[in-house]
Design goal:
The protein is α/β, with parallel strands linked by helices. The chain has 3 domains: about 60 residues, no CATH class; about 90 residues, Nucleic acid-binding proteins (OB fold (Dihydrolipoamide Acetyltransferase, E2P)); about 260 residues, Purple Acid Phosphatase, chain A, domain 2 (4-Layer Sandwich), CATH 3.60.21.50. Helices cover about 20% and strands about 25% of the residues. The protein contains 10 helices and 21 strands. Strands 5, 11, 12, 13, 14, 15, 16, 17, 18, 19, 20 and 21 form a 12-stranded mixed sheet that branches. The longest helix has 18 residues. It starts with a helix and ends with a strand. The structure holds 2'-deoxyadenosine-5'-monophosphate, fe (iii) ion and zinc ion. 2'-deoxyadenosine-5'-monophosphate (D5M) binds next to loops. 2'-deoxyadenosine-5'-monophosphate binds next to loops.
């Protein structure tokens, strides 16, 4: 039985204060699972739990009780929330914020010591636990992994032995991710021999929220309007199908258009060579879709905004031809559809993961999405292919835990479940480009994933042939 006192006490036990309206809402629902979900998913820096932290709880009130949400709520990444110019010094705050938040998730499962303390003679050859940011990853000549781990007090070298269980996790270590390590210190105190690698991760107990009312969302990505490889026939079939389909939301995770000057020689592969006209054409395509659809559009690396992440929403001067039912969000953005939270991320960091992880390939993006969830971070590595903007906060962390992580960019569809979170890479509407042929990337174009918000079951609809086919 959930009464007011039990609810308040549950939050106090986890050192959280709670707004009286949230208490009233939870008491009215009487749902212990919902209470536990809220407790486990509020962001780490929360002091007071508010309506926005409760799936399905609206901010509007009719005097006596809460009404349900407007069906779409942009929780993070709404238009205009990032893009300001910050200086190099802000990277210090940026990484500090990442370390504090993600380190905090690990700290709740173990007791770690400051790295500086490892210098003390009494810890030599003793078991120690540390939490830090990976500053360098190397393979030794014998095939072990040696990484430098850094916290605010110091740096230590950590050795992951290839013959120990769990080494495959260590093989996926990326620069700048936050990890915890349990291990034994060497006799000179300079090397930590790892026994266990801990990541921020999603708890096994995590239970995703499902909508109480019927509703379906269609997830797509990488439309690439303006490219001569944009599949207009397949899009027309998709457009016709969605006209009669029982869906309420359409989400696209970036590369809305092909853009201009994105890669050398692109001009020769463009059917629309003006950036405004590319967006206008997409606007017209979306005008043909039912106006009852809520359409949520995020940018990718081909779009007109800055490449550094978080990328701002598409500016208004490019969206004059888009219908009013479109909402422009940043990359990444956390969007609630009837309380089901979808984290939209274009997925550029997948290029870095593929470049840095043995065995990772463009053929299957699923493991990369799974690793993002384990790291609770969309793009850990700074200074490779994924540009990251200086900021006082790290907006690329995965917090709170979404029901769905949605990516694109690699143009290959992939779906995987990880600890209750569904990860979907939605593929593309562009056929193989000359560049992708050179890189041996084989896209899976013209697919849309229909997500049932009541069951979180995804269904793949393939529009690449004359007839639409449901792939399961
Ligand atoms: O990315 C389309 C595909 O091409 C995706 O699989 C990534 C790959 N790609 C794009 N740019 C590069 C670079 N510079 N190196 C390696 N692979 C790349 P899109 O963003 O649509 O161009
Ligand atoms: Fe793309
Ligand atoms: Zn892309």
């Amino acid at each position: 039985m959930l009464n007011t006192e039990t609810i308040v006490q549950r939050f106090l036990d986890t050192k959280l204060q709670v707004h009286p309206e949230v208490v009233r809402y939870l008491a009215e629902k009487g749902d212990t699972d919902l209470l536990e979900r809220v407790v486990s998913s509020v962001p780490d820096d929360t002091i007071v739990v508010l309506a926005q932290h409760v799936p399905g709880m609206g901010l509007s009130k009719d005097g006596t009780r809460f009404l349900t949400d407007p069906e779409v709520e942009i929780i993070n990444g709404s238009e205009g929330s990032s893009g300001g110019v910050l200086g190099v010094a802000d990277y210090l705050h940026y990484f500090r914020h990442r370390y504090d938040c993600l380190g905090g998730l690990i700290r709740s499962r173990c007791s770690a010591m400051p790295i500086e303390a490892l210098k003390k003679p009494r810890y030599r050859e003793e078991k120690c636990t540390i939490i830090g940011l990976v500053s360098e990853v190397k393979s030794t000549t014998k095939g072990h992994r040696r990484v430098d781990v850094e916290d605010a007090t110091g740096t230590v070298a950590v050795l992951f032995n290839k013959d120990r269980p769990g080494f495959s996790d260590a093989e996926t270590l990326l620069p700048d991710e936050v990890i915890g390590v349990k291990g034994s210190l060497s006799s000179d105190g300079k090397l930590l021999f790892a026994d266990q690698l801990m990541r921020p991760d999603i708890p096994h107990s995590h239970a995703p929220y499902t909508s109480e009312t019927p509703g379906k969302a269609v997830l797509i990505s990488d439309i690439h309007v303006g490219s001569d490889t944009f599949l207009d026939d397949a899009w027309d079939r998709f457009s016709e199908w969605i006209g009669g389909a029982d869906v309420s939301y359409l989400l696209c995770a970036g590369d809305l258009v092909d853009g201009i000057g994105i890669y050398p020689g692109q001009e020769a592969e463009l059917t629309i060579k003006n950036i405004y006209e590319q967006y206008d054409f997409l606007g017209e395509l979306l005008q043909s879709l039912p106006s009852r659809l809520k359409i949520i559009l995020a940018p990718g690396n081909h779009d007109v905004v800055r490449g550094a992440e978080p990328q701002p929403a598409i500016p208004r001067k490019f969206t004059g031809k888009f219908p009013d039912n479109c909402v422009f969000v940043e990359n990444p953005a956390l969007v609630s559809l009837q309380g089901v939270r979808v984290l939209m991320y274009h997925g550029r960091s997948i290029d870095d993961q593929i470049g840095l992880t043995p065995g990772a390939s463009y053929e299957n993006p699923s493991p990369m999405m799974e690793w993002m969830l384990k790291r609770r971070h969309l793009a850990p590595t700074y200074g490779r292919k994924t540009p990251i903007a200086a900021d006082r906060q790290d907006h690329l962390m995965i917090d709170p835990i979404p029901e769905v992580l949605m990516t694109g960019h690699v143009h290959v569809m992939g779906i995987v479940q990880y600890h209750g979170t569904l990860a979907i890479n939605a593929g593309t509407w562009q056929s193989q480009t000359a560049f992708q042929k050179q890189m041996n990337i084989n896209p899976t174009p013209a697919r849309a994933v229909v997500l049932d918000l009541q069951t979180l079951v995804p269904t793949i609809h393939d529009f690449s042939g004359e007839e639409m086919v449901i792939l399961g």
